[in-house]
Amino acid sequence: MSAEPEPYLVPGPWGPAEKAAWRDRQLRRRSYADDVLQRLQTLPPGLEVTQYGALSCDPAAYPLYLVTTRDWSADRPTVLVTGGVHGYETSGVLGALAFLETEAARFATHFNIACAPCVSPWAWETINRWNPSAIDPNRSFHADSPAEECAALMAAVAALDAPLLAHIDLHETTDTDNSVFRPEKGARDGVAQDVWDIPDGFYLVGATHNPCPGFQAAIIAAVREVTHVAPADAEGRLIGVPIEQEGVINYDVRALNLCTGLSNARWCTTTEVYPDSPRTNPDECVRAQVAAVRSGLDHIIDQTP
Fold first, then answer.
1. Does residue 71 form part of some domain?
2. Taking phi first (over 0 means left), then psi (-120 to 50 degrees means alpha), and beta for anything else, what does residue 138 get?
3. Is the separation of the CB atoms in 107 and 297 below 8 Å?
4. Mean pLDDT lowest among 100-109, 149-158, 191-200, 262-271
5. How many domains does the chain have?
6. CA distance 171 to 82
7. Is 304 helix (H, G, I), strand (E, B) or coil?
8. Does residue 2 lie in a domain region?
9. How many CA atoms are closer than 13 Å to the CA of 13, on its beta-carbon side?
């Protein structure tokens, strides 16, 4: 008689017991306090750090912070930068922090800047796509979201009381999408999952309702100076989606409840870095994220009368 499968791999749909079994298997692999919170304490002058919530699984360990430019003005447009919506996507978090440390001051005369550098701190520590409830935050940005990371961020953005001109969300596409995430998703949902054809290089995900192709092209051109841009596959696609232009695909971000669909920002994009490529390294991935934010904001300045 064959052995029973591990509880977290029992074909779903999972109930509370299976989700708890999955959560109990997750190990703390890095430190949110050391990697993120410590850097928030040493940001340059002109930036203000405000707590907007905490994760209920351990509020003391997982406070949530928004960084804003201190000289906030109703006369300036507001831009939002987010990282770590998927906590396992390392350069998203480190890129957001590096932008705050090296570039934010230059843009403070043009924009009010708000940045949530690590939206999902439990997932950062456990190197997970999901949150502790086995929910994908980047499919959960909607009213009455079951993902507290999403609900807290949406409330914090609403509390700014300033419409967003731009939103840049920093992500990665990794080999573990196929080796870890998709098998777990198949088990959780009870639906077989095809593997991704993971693009080798940087690409962007725009919004079908607001593709802003010039904005995307400016970011791709700047990132190309830092790291390689992902080529389309033989069918002209990236992760199964037809390319809109080199290095750019579009998703219906609102229907999918993605982070960049949380507002009516005129300019929005999601970055995707491939850290597992033999053609890159961790430092280059972080610099690519910073280049994406910098070039996107420079493009907006150039296009604004």
1. yes
2. alpha
3. yes
4. 191-200
5. 1
6. 9
7. coil
8. no
9. 2
Amino acid 42: pLDDT: 97
Asked whether residue 139 is assigned to any structural domain, the reply reads yes
pLDDT in tens, 209-225: 999 999 999 999 999 99
Tokens 């904005």, located at residue: 215
Give the domain range for residue 272. 7-303
Whether 8 shows a pLDDT value over 80: the answer reads no
At 302, which amino acid appears?
D
Q: What is the pLDDT of residues 75-89, one digit of tens each?
A: 999 999 999 999 999
Maximum distance among all alpha carbons in the chain?
Answer: 73
User: Percent of the chain at pLDDT above 90?
Assistant: 93
CATH, residue 191 = 3.40.630.10
One-letter amino acid for residue 81 of the chain = V
- Return the closest-CA partner of residue 20 out of 126, 131, 133: 133
DSSP-based three-state secondary structure for 82: strand
Question: What single letter denotes the amino acid at residue 82?
Answer: T
For 279-305, b where at least 16 C-beta lie within 10 A, e where not — what string? ebeeebbbbbbbbbbbbbbbbbeeeee
pTM above 0.90, yes or no: yes
- Could you count the other beta carbons within 10 Å of the beta carbon of residue 27? 7
How far is 87 from 57, CA to CA, in rounded Å? 15
For 239, left (φ over 0), alpha (ψ -120 to 50), or beta? left
